[in-house]
Design brief:
This protein is mainly beta and 232 residues long. Helices cover 12% and strands 35% of the residues. α1 links the parallel β7 and β8. The protein is globular.
Length: 232
């Protein structure tokens, strides 16, 4: 494992600050790919010791149409109507990425039977499973269109810790730079130590978080508003 860098109380690299966007900032245009947060997730502790939670739903549009996390089963009507407002039907979605296997993130996979499915490290089309090297720590390219940075435009990046097979989706070339749809790698902008309480492996997740902060300009967390990464 890589040497650990100095971190603050949030488990972030000490050389970084995070600043949330307002609720109205949900769209990040780009060329050829744009990123839109269809629904910001939440995680709300309850007085009886339980909590209410729903995962962030994100749409990536461009040469391929990509949905990252589908929310819980209770989001079915919301998801269908929101896609329709954007002129999309389920059959228009080319790729669905589930950042991990929790029900508030993959509750509506069945709406997209014709899409390529990526859930954790699994990549499938119908009942045919394709090889990937995500388990080896390597990114999986969704679109090889190359922007000025010479990086793949859209790629799935392994970021274990919250579970053993978490992934994030990296989009380069947007108006705000590189956007990382991070799933529960980050709970929200100010997740303090809450991410630790929900992590299967805090040491591994902290390394994944540090890598994300080094490479992303904007992060879309699993349960909150997008936030900007500022390097000191």
């Amino acid at each position: 494992m890589a040497d650990m860098e100095p971190t603050d109380s949030k488990g972030l690299c000490a050389d970084f600050q995070t600043v949330p966007f307002s609720e109205s900032q949900a769209d990040f245009p780009g060329q050829p790919y744009s990123v839109s947060v269809l629904k910001a997730g939440y995680c709300l502790p309850q007085t009886d010791g339980t909590f209410r939670a729903d995962g962030t739903i994100t749409l990536i549009t461009g040469p391929r149409t990509i949905l990252v996390d589908t929310g819980g089963p209770w989001d079915r009507s919301f998801l269908l109507s929101t896609l329709k407002k954007r002129g999309l039907e389920p059959g228009d979605i080319d790729v669905v990425v589930g950042t991990h296997g929790h029900s508030d993130h993959i509750g509506n996979l069945s709406l997209f039977p014709t899409a390529v499915m990526m859930v954790g490290y699994d990549v499938s089309e119908g009942d045919a499973y394709r090889p990937s090297r995500l388990a080896e720590g390597l990114a999986h390219t969704i679109d090889e269109h190359v922007c000025v940075s010479s990086l793949p435009q859209v790629s799935v990046v392994p970021c274990p810790g919250h579970t053993g097979q978490d992934v994030s989706v990296q989009v380069t070339g947007t108006s705000v730079g590189t956007v990382l749809v991070a799933g529960d790698l980050f709970e929200c902008c100010s997740d303090e130590d809450s991410w630790r309480d929900l992590s299967m492996d805090t040491a591994v997740q902290q390394v994944s978080r540090q890598q994300a902060l080094r490479t992303a300009d904007v992060i879309i967390p699993g349960h909150g508003l997008p936030f900007r990464v500022l390097r000191k």
